[in-house]
Amino acid sequence: MTRAYNFSAGPAVLPESVLRQAADEMLDWHGSGMSVMEMSHRGKEFMSILAQAKADLAELLNLPSNYKILFLQGGGVGMNGIIPMNLLGNKKSIDVVNTGSWASKSLKEAKKYAKANEVATSEPQHYTCIPPRDTWKLDPDAAYVHICSNETIGGVQYHWVPDTGSVPLVADMSSDILSRPIDVSRYGLIFAGAQKNMGPSGMTLVLVRDDLLGRALPITPNAFDFKQQADNDSMLNTPPTYAIYIAGLVYQWLKKQGGLAAMEAHNRKKAALLYDLLDATPFYTSPVARSDRSLMNVPFTLPTEELTTAFLQGAKERGMVQLKGHSSVGGIRASIYNAMPIEGVQALADYMKEFAAHHG
Ligand SMILES: *Cc1c(COP(=O)(O)O)cnc(C)c1O
Fold this sequence. Notes:
Blueprint: E1 5-6, H1 16-24, H2 44-61, E2 67-72, H3 75-87, E3 93-98, H4 101-110, E4 115-121, E5 145-148, E6 150-151, E7 156-157, E8 169-172, E9 189-193, E10 204-209, H5 226-231, H6 241-256, H7 259-280, E11 297-300, H8 305-317, E12 320-321, E13 332-335, H9 342-359
Helix pairs in contact: 1-6, 2-6, 3-4, 7-9
């Protein structure tokens, strides 16, 4: 068996030890005689898996006691509608900072439920940077301010937490959750699909501050009403049990790695291998402003389409896969989430050097 170095943007690479443990436990979880997939979500076995996952996640995030952890379904895209339904309350509008494809989608979807204002945009810069905070035209009466902490397609990431005063900050962290320590208390709500940095698709994490619960519009489906789910420990309906189990194994793996500060140091080292090379090699172009470069998704371009195709082919022959850039931007994108080992990034950097020397 050979495992490729998998640079997929998502669903993405998971720690090999987690996959091995899941394989070992596939037919019989801890002597229960069942796979986790086959367990009642209300039985004591699954309840213990859920409780452990929540405890480990709270520990990793240093979660303040006035925040709830919800394991829901619907994905990041679902949350774009579910969050305005839950947080609008008696307000009229929300503010969105548009930094690329994902924030644009959130803006568009929110418009179905609220007056959604684009309070800043980097569109004129082709979404290659984060608009500076002093250019944002925030409305003090907005229900919340939406940001995307890491634009998975554009490779643009916040390296600071915006101050939004008394207006709650909502962050889509689908592609950088658990990649670095965060001060949860600076946010009203954080959401993330699991499949980039946390587990398989099918589970969506929501961290929400207590005082924001109970504002859902009457049209909100019960299964997506944060207060109802919080009151029922994410068990108002059947939660995505297997995805929660795998995410729980990932949380334990993260603790073994030394937690989020250790993860950030590791991720910085990995990203530097690529960015230093991109900066030193005119053959490659990195479109993103240096101060806003993502530690998770590294997009870059080669001089021509033909060279890009040849690059991808050569990478595949060397066991490096899913490097093709998103169809909307082209080029190459290397996603180097927590579970991508530094050896994989080093192998890519070595290949990039070799390729540029041959073709540059
Ligand atoms: C992948 C992604 C999403 C979409 O998640 P789905 O699970 O496909 O709905 C949303 N936001 C960001 C930043 C993403 O990377």
